[in-house]
Predict the 3D structure of the following.
Amino acid sequence: MESTKKDNTVAIVSYIYIIGWIIAFLLYGKNKTELGAYHLRQSLGLHVTFSLLLFFGTVGKILSLLMVLFMIIGLIYAIQQENKPVPIVGDLYQSLFKGVV
């Protein structure tokens, strides 16, 4: 499937805080592409995990920094228009959120 500028935008915007994910999801509804769906699932998993980790004290906050690093990696993959999972948790997010996007 050939990527377009619009589906690249969906992929990129999905990593910008949760509000960016919501905007990307709305854009995706008008232009459904494989790249957009892939990165919507990745970024949703990262946003959810990041939010949950903040409730687990010091260890959770340290691990949440790892999620920020994974978001940056995912953003780089989105910019490069690649469907590559983020390290460690990316494949899990793809299977967990298959029904969402």
